[in-house]
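W.,

You were right to be curious about this one. When I first looked at the sequence I had no strong expectations either way, so I just let the prediction run and decided to look at it fresh. Below is the sequence, 171 residues in total, followed by the output.
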Amino acid sequence: MNKKGFLFLRQHLLEGLLLLVIIGFFLVQRLDVIFMAAIIFAYLVIVFLNDNFLYRIKKGAGDVKKNRQYGILFLMIIALMLIWQFSPESIIFTAIFIAFALYRWDGRIVAGGALISLASSLFLLIVERDALAEQMTLYAFYLFAIAAVLAIIEYKRSQKLITNVRKIRKI
């Protein structure tokens, strides 16, 4: 492999990992070629046209490295869910909620995922994949519920911060 190709792969490591996750999703769901091509096209549009998306992924990885105690707590909860034999979907959605709540990431990202899931269910209905469309709609509902709870948590945190600032000003 030439040096330019290696540097390109090194600079775009996170994008490559995200692509591997998407390909793994394809293999698990056994999707047809047309649907896989549409998702890969959407992936390329998101990754290569939006630098803010890449910045948030890098910031999230930095937050996980910086707050190791949250990471350990997060892994303990996931391990307990595996021991208690929770379904893979419930583990994933609970992990998303816990990660966004602990690391104080923006809950609008989850709402964006819900919108993408809802849009993909429309596409699946068009190509007559009704069962998968129904599943994606349920995922959208779960993600919207998570986004709503995260918005409430964020609001409570901001109110607590405002109250603390007012107390400090009175002193």
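Here's what jumped out at me. DSSP finds eight helices and no strands in the chain. And, maybe more interesting for your project: The helical segments are 3-11, 13-29, 33-49, 51-66, 68-83, 88-102, 108-126, 130-170.

Coffee later to discuss?

I.
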